[in-house]
Design brief:
about 100 residues, about 20% helix, alpha+beta, three-stranded antiparallel beta sheet, extended, 2 domains
């Protein structure tokens, strides 16, 4: 093991973070004993033959994130806390199809 201390990558103040940006409107999660895989997806409308139908969508994967079970748990906790702060700050309660399902 090296005695060298690794310094975090320094981004100059006011500069964008040099990392890819992805937008996702849906996701799926797969888990194994060793890791969690999160597939971020965007939905795009599909033509019904006569034009664009608002009733049919295609889920297109845009990014894949793999996390250890420990990191997934930490991510879940931090994200839950961030959502609570958002709801408190904007005085809203976020309700989704998933979160409003019975027995959740």
């Amino acid at each position: 093991m090296s005695d060298r201390i690794t310094q975090p990558y320094a981004i100059p103040t006011g500069q964008p973070i040099p990392a890819p940006f992805y937008y996702a409107s849906s996701f799926s999660i797969q888990a194994t004993a060793n890791d969690f895989t999160i597939v971020l997806q965007d939905t795009i409308p599909i033509s019904d033959g006569t034009g664009v139908s608002g009733d049919t969508e295609l889920r297109r994967p845009v990014a894949i994130i793999k996390l250890s079970p420990q990191s997934a748990k930490d991510f879940s906790s931090v994200l839950h806390e961030a959502i609570q702060k958002y709801e408190s700050l904007y005085n809203v309660t976020l309700v989704t199809d998933f979160s409003s399902e019975p027995n959740k």
